[in-house]
Amino acid sequence: MIGLHNLSKHYDDLRAVDDVSLSIETGSVVAIVGTSGSGKSTLLRLVNRLIEPTAGHVTLNGQDTRDMPAFELRRRIGYVIQDHGLFPHWTVARNIATVPRLLGWPKDKIRARVEELLRLLSLDPATIGPRFPHQLSGGQMQRVGVARALAARPELLLMDEPFGALDPVLRGKAQADLRAIQQTLGSTILLVTHDMAEAIRLSDRVAVMRAGRVEQFGTPAEILSRPATAFVRDLVGEGERAFRFLSLIPATDLAEEGAASGQPLPRTATASEALDALIWQNAEALPLEGGGRISRAALLRAGHP
Predict the structure, then answer these.
(1) Per-residue pLDDT tens for 104-160?
(2) How far apart are CA 233 and CA 224, in angstroms?
(3) Which of 258, 294, 266 shows the shortest CA–CA distance to 278?
(4) Cα 241 from Cα 227, distance rounded (Å)
(5) Cα(125)–Cα(8) distance, rounded to whole angstroms?
(6) Torsion on CA atoms 196, 252, 187, 242, rounded to nearest 10
């Protein structure tokens, strides 16, 4: 459990973060979303004490982080930033091994951990490990940055706009990879993003920030169906609200008995993906792999929480 307790950071008259309290369950993903200047990145840096708070404190599994040496705290917290921050003169393998080496891990344990993470992130250790950052694609650098942050098995992973520099195709793949890795490792993640769709896709809970304060903290479904303020409603976007809500629902939850013609929907599809397929194929219903069907009427009903 990660606790943020009345956390504030003031710069003269500017309240960059203003009395923020959040509880982050172990093994969950929490997204902090808001417009530029809302305090998202400042809040993240307060968590690992890259900057010190004006007031309030953070607890990590019940321990007040003010009682920890800063270097120890940062070894317990992984940190991923948008430009990855890889050391350009070090190989990929050495970049990933940075914190384990500082912790004095045995060489064979470090080597095994580097190879394990590269494989987990769909990177070949023999091919990618010896390369330098400038020899990687943007997507590869992003995955190496995640691997480095995970190397010492941190209790918390902080991610500050980690996919912002990627093109839409790579961004979608990176998001899917992160969610799969999180579910495999059970990592606790605090993710900063300005993209509400990304927050909804990746997180268990969403904190919407404005002017240094949290306007709403809830599940993606709660944020979409019951926005607490006009600002949250505007950030969600009325025009995309139904599709975003459908993206939270597995298509199998809406399956009906009966047959239908057309390209079968995979059982992993979301309701929004199913509706997209129905529109594209101009169909009233489509078959579902393994039996049953998904109808347009059922999807339209589900899109109105």
Answers:
(1) 899 999 999 999 999 988 889 999 999 999 999 888 888 898 889 888 888 898 988
(2) 8
(3) 294
(4) 11
(5) 43
(6) 10
**Which residue in 32, 25, 19, 71 sits closest to 50, CA to CA?**
71
Output the six-digit token pair for 37: 């200047």
Per-position DSSP letters for 107-152, written without gaps between them: HHHHHHHHHHHHHHTT--HHHHTT--GGGS-HHHHHHHHHHHHHTT
Q: What's the predicted TM-score (pTM) here? A: 0.81
DSSP string over 230-281:
HHHHHHH-GGGHHHHHHTTSBGGGG-BSS---SSPBPTT-BHHHHHHHHHHH
Per-residue DSSP letter, 105: -
Cα separations in angstroms, 15 against 10, 37, 105, 168: 4, 11, 41, 34
According to DSSP H, which parts of 20-106 are helical? 40-47, 70-76, 92-96, 98-102
How many CA atoms lie within 13 Å of 158's alpha carbon, on the beta-carbon side?
21
Query: How does pLDDT run across 16-74, given as a tens digit for each residue?
Result: 999 999 999 999 999 999 988 899 999 999 998 999 999 999 998 888 999 988 888 87
Task: Specify whether the backbone of 138 is left (phi greater than 0), alpha (psi in -120 to 50) or beta.
Answer: alpha
Secondary element (H or E) of residue 285:
strand 285-287
Decide: helix, strand or coil at residue 38: coil
- Tokens 């579910």 belong to 183
Strand order in the sheet with 213-218: 77-81, 156-160, 189-193, 29-33, 205-210, 213-218
Number of DSSP helices (H) and strands (E) in the chain, helices first: 14, 12
**217's tokens:** 């903290």
